[in-house]
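Lecture 7, part B: from sequences to assemblies.

Below are the input chains for today's worked example.
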Amino acid sequence: MTTTTDAQIGQKSQGILKLERRRRITMGILFLAAAVFIWLVFATDVEPGVETRFMMNPGGGSAEAADWVFPSLLYLNMIAGILSLLGAFQIIRGFGKYTYGVLALVAILFIFGFLTWATAGGQTNLAGLLRVMVVRAVPLTLGAMSGILCERGGIINIAIEGMMLTSAFISTVFASLFNSLIVGLLAGIIAGGLMGLIHGWLSIKYKVNQIISGTVINIFATGITSYLSSRYIQKVEFQYLNEPGMFPQINVPVLSKIPFIGPILFSHNMYVFAMFFFVILLTFMLFKTRWGLRLRSVGEHPKAADTLGINVHRTQYMAVILGGMMAGFGGTYFSLGSSGRFDEVMTAGRGFIGLAAMIFGNWHPVGSMGAGLLFGFFDSLSAKASLLQVPIPSEFIGMAPYLATIIVLAGVIGRGHAPAAEGEPYEKE
Amino acid sequence: MENTTENKKKSLSVFWDEFSRSNFLVILLAIFTGILLGGVLVAITTNEVYAAFRESIWSGFGAAFRTAWNTYVALFTGSVGNPEKIRLAFASGDQLAIRRAINPFFESLVQSTPYIFGGLAVALGFRAGLFNIGVEGQIFIGAATGVWAGYAINGLPTIIHIPLAMLFGALGGALWGFIPGLLKAKTGAHEVITTIMMNYIAFRLVDWLLKFPMKDPNEFTPKTPWILETAKLPRLFDTPIRFHIGFFIAVLMAVAVYYLLFKTTWGFELRMVGSNPNAARYAGVKITKTTILAMVLSGALAGMAGANEVLGVNYRLLPAFSSGYGFDSIALALLGKTHPLGVILSSLLFGFLRNGARSMQLAVGVPIDIVSILQAVILAFIAAPAIIRTIYRLRESKHEEDLVSLRSWKG
Amino acid sequence: MAPVLELRGITKRFPGVLANDHIDLTVEKGEIHALLGENGAGKTTLMNILYGLYHPDEGEIFVNGQKLDVHSPIDAIKSGVGMVHQHFMLVPVFTVTENVMLGEEYVKAGGVLDRTKAANKIREISNIYKLDINPDAYISDIPVGMQQRVEIIKLLFREANILIMDEPTAVLTPQEVEELFKIMHTMIEQGKSIIFITHKLGEVMDIADRITVIRGGKVVGSTTPAESDLNDLASMMVGRDVNLEVEKSESVPGEVVFEVENLKVLDSVGALAVNDMSFKVHAGEVLGIAGVQGNGQTELVRAITGLLQAVDGDVRLCGHNITHLSPRKITEIGSAHIPEDRQKDGLVLGFPITDNLVLNTYYLEPNSKSIWMDQKSINENGKKLVESFDIRTPSPFVPARNLSGGNQQKVIVAREFSRPIKFLVASQPTRGLDVGSIEFIHKRLIEKRDDGCAILLVSTELDEIMQLSDRIAVVYRGKLLDILDAKNATKEIVGLLMAGIIPSEEEKQKLLAKKKQILIT
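Predicted structure of the full complex, as structure tokens:
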């Protein structure tokens, strides 16, 4: 008797390898395209001898850090050169597991090139721009982390917006009533957690489509906060309910004194520091602890988790409640961290951009913060667009995050990995 | 001739079949329960009720009931009209008084009109297995293109200008639906996220259009010029009644969507793709084409909602155009079980509620946002009928259909 | 000493089915106990009960003489029962270590994972049982055979003493099977006991210490390899009396209608699933494709019906080259397809039966005129077919969802047979159906053959292939090993081929002679 031999074992992952190769090259071409764009659009538009002046103090003066002045054309050429080297290396060899890091570097360099061009012959307050970027990134990153918590457990959360809005309202009222920011903060977090519980209740217990459930929460949150707001806190006799106060700015000793870096990173109210803290904490929790391992297993392969004795539904409830609390914390930023009052629909879509930041950041806290900072930068830049030397309307700069998210979703630069079991209610047989 | 009457009978029976299978009773109870909860909310946010409770528990309950009752009476008269006023007006014979008395009813229809367009847009998407959250953005773009055709194209007779302007609105919305449709079909990018992103791009784009290319040079603030008389959707009555033919266009579109979905081969393909894309592929349907076309049509309907508002009500486009129609439309489409006739009914319900709520806000001081709360609560009940079944101890239906069949997150 | 495991009178009913009927089973320490039975005999149900995934309606479970109440996998794990599922329960984006310790994590203070310690334990187990596993590899990067060993490590990591292995060889290459058997022997040496679920006779003879055969949810016999041979086991497993004979005359093959030449098709992960296949189907004959599930049949069928693009080779139908045509074009040339997964591909469950009966002809006259559907004609067509194909339903307008599996399949058959076709691909046409429906469908297929239609029958049921085919092609690992004339084929010969073993001419003759002998006696 003869046994047939297997010829195809070696070919098992041929298709996958091909795909990886194509992605590697696409990415490299993207880097090169960035370089070519800088040369063709930015560099040709700048006269030799023109200088770019970046102010390095958010306040504007030059007491602590001197302005940064450099020849525009030279720097543009240098940036384009570095980008093309990176692109060539990416096409030939690839950066392997550092690819996303390099991608972030390319993005930063490209934006720097853009600013160099846009500021050529004039001046831009770079420090101010970056400081506002960090502030604007806070609600986006916190929203993204709410999404990560839910979606790593397999529950889609498009209700971040509604959770934030509810928390912004509740925190305002409680902080005003008790005259305590901490009470307001806690109330906001609890309110977010409750919204998460409702989301879980609808989508886990009643198996409502998770997107519909999220829509319910968004509509409800808009309705109830606006209702209660116009019923009470907008009225003069209830004005005292809309005076929560704000968390004060904290200047971190020593660090805040560092020129340029200090005012950008170390001189904010507690939300900025909390953002950094939560990003580190959540990364650690997700990838280094038993809790994270179990949560991720539920989002990836709930049946496998179930056969190993992990309670899938309980884990998912925990995920949506914690996700809601994170969104709740983020929601209090609007009232207690940035405006000191509640206004109707004050979240203005930040929850949805947080969702985009989560996808952009590949469901990873650090990546999401990167995306949050990037989106925050565009936000910050669009507010200052009129001060630039180039005629780009602020609205178009403001569109950049959304366009970028669509491009990422379309898989142009390699699709991210969404948790595999996301959106599908888990049913035991 | 016999054929057509039979067809009519059949289309009605198809509707009733769908409607009763989808548990009509649950829908009614969902609406009833939502309204009940709304009444409770109004009562517990009214100071007089608390004052009454301090007197005695019964007067408290009495006050609570009276408050809720008065609220809903105000809502009713605000949406349909005050029967007493109407009677008096007709008795007096004064034309203006009559128009004033019956105005609330027609104003509710005006309010319902964009809902019908938007609800149809979402429903059509659902039928193809697509969740179009981008209706809001498509409405914005449709309003912008529609208003442009309304003020910038000169010298056309009304009979051409109006359809043309509506068509421009539809095309604008269609473009905004085409992009996510194309991305979904070709790359699998999930339409929920892409349409949300397209919404924000639309808001920014329209902001910019209003500030620069489309700005009325005679105004200081960003506004478009007034549209030409020839582009205005004709109103059927004199002031103050704003009721215009847009309502009929919307109903016509619902009929068209109904025929498209249930009477044409193309609708058959669309529903096949929405219901079971694998079987559709097996049966030789081109999924890519169908997906793109469904998003384009959905966007076109949404665009018409925008055009309808600028051509029939506002006559120009303002930055504060944002209405939330798009997000409401999702709830309405689901409430109407994604059936065109259901969409009309749910749109009328919420059109009347929203219009009535405006007068209610003036009359008894209950904020209009109560309608959004009702909407969310009713939608939750519709999406999770088990809640209603538990509350009213209804028996399980033989087979609980999914409200919509959507493809997975990853496309 | 009490046996390691004892099941007494386990009974499990599902709606309409008695899946397990008072099953008794005893497993001694240190033995490999094979649980042999056809697909659907109730093996997997029984093991899911033991593993706590189902709860039995009646019966008791004893482990080491102690009565055990299993409500969840946790209870099973705690009492030392572990299961290697047929579909692996591994998270692809996790490493081996993460998968193995999930649910039973090694942690340092504060719940921080101790990956090093777990990895060391895995290495230790891997060395003892010669599993050759790298704890740091990602599951998505390692081959199927190694994934299975990870599943085994999961159980050993939890110190399971009774290992249930559900069809573990179904996804393995012969070399991997041999390795697996070695590992199983090592585990026995270490004092573990194994329940080996399979329907492959050869493997049972090779490895089992004892054999329990179940059929139709009942234990029909218990034996050892020494006391029995393949034939005994086969007849026990299949049962002589349930053979469904199909009356059919000698086929009258006409010209070649359908032809496949050097076809190559990739599966979803990019592996070569169909490797250089060539065959022809004549008018008026049934060509049966036999083979164990997952040997490229699915991809073959999807490629020739236009649902999957072939990477190389040609497919011709009635003189047209259809290799790269769309499903619709292929259908229009005269091909019909009964898909293997009727609910996934063949029906829109939410649509009424009438609409499902025109699923691929809705756009043609008389079902529609230009873009308008002619509902009247569609309804009439539906009523007619419901009657002539004996589809049991209260009305032709109820959704297909409400029909039983057999009637759903009849809808598909009715639809495909109601239009003029020259070629039919029937993929697993009777899977999971009741006897009545099987008979009905078999009869219709033969009728169609006698009408001059060319039929390609793809089935993993050897009986079905033997009963219906005029010629039998056997696929193994994407290759077509042999095409036999039905007259020269026996179950044994086809069975050997399905296992990847090509018998010599001499052996074939011997087996054939045996068959004739049986026929004479």
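Note for the exam: Chain A has a mean pLDDT of 89. Keep this in mind when comparing with the next example.
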